[in-house]
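Please produce the structure of this protein holding PBG.
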Amino acid sequence: MAFPVKRPRRLRMSPAIRLMVRETALTPHDFILPLFVKATPDKHFREPIKSMPDCYHLSPAMAAVAAEEAYAVGVPAVLLFGLPTHKDSRGSGAWAEDGPVQLAVQEIKSARPEICVICDTCLCEYTDHGHCGIVRGDTVDNDPTLELLARTALSQVRAGADMVAPSDMMDGRVAAIRQALDGQGFCNTPVMSYAAKYASSFYGPFRAAADCCPAFGDRRTYQMDPGNAREAMREVALDIEEGADIVMVKPALPYLDIIKAVRETFDLPVAAYQVSGEYAQIKGAAAIGLVDEVCNMIESLTSIKRAGADMIVTYFAVKAAEVLARQMTSCDDCSL
Ligand code: PBG
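Below is the modeled complex.
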């Protein structure tokens, strides 16, 4: 028997009932906050990033302050990106013991050891050509790059990182990193691999923020074609075989189908990265009054979780955690 006996609207008639039947609810524990750490002698350095409203370039010490603030509102983890003072063809700053990321790890772990510090493992912020590996001719040479990525991951873990997150998309990098970590006794340090990372136009604001735009060509010989879904399954399967502990899909909102397929096909925790362009679109549209920032933020994050993400890397982490804390204190305030 259908209408008029069956009326789905019955369960939408009050805020309390809507809350009771809600299938997907966000918590601050779902979020990972990316931070941009700059090599600078100024301990208190904190400068707004033009391409990413409300995000900052931070000194290692100020990164620790930001991580503590996020932790205080329930965000358990940060993801660190570095801006070195100088770059070279091999990206040697990536594994420097006194590099910005390595220093920030130390600052954060000594300020608050409970915070989970994840380091993005890649070379593009450190290479003078802006590519994610060693360049030979006009392309990135896969196999020699693996050793440099492994060296970078090892230096991050030696500095105290709780997890490494390779974002380069070289073939075999998870195995190379796993082997290097295990070889030095870090067998309990997880690898969160950017397993299905697309060659996306949504990275623009990040590349301006991290100064890692390729000097020539693009990243399409290593990052995935946006039209491909089955290939994402192969990429994820390979990373899992190589020893990945968490697999990531990136970007998030334009790739919800991929998040869902990965969630349904594999049993590892799935991360999704709401990238800089997704963030900037909401910020930009809200700034000129076209959308409501808070509602767009919560709805997009809820969609990413509903698709199957166990954790979400997002520049909104702190703001979303604050909004959720307010919502959870009152049943009346659940309109979002
Ligand atoms: C580095 C890296 C990028 C992002 C994360 N790690 C840039 C890229 O691949 O070009 C993008 C993150 C964002 O847009 O928020 N490989």
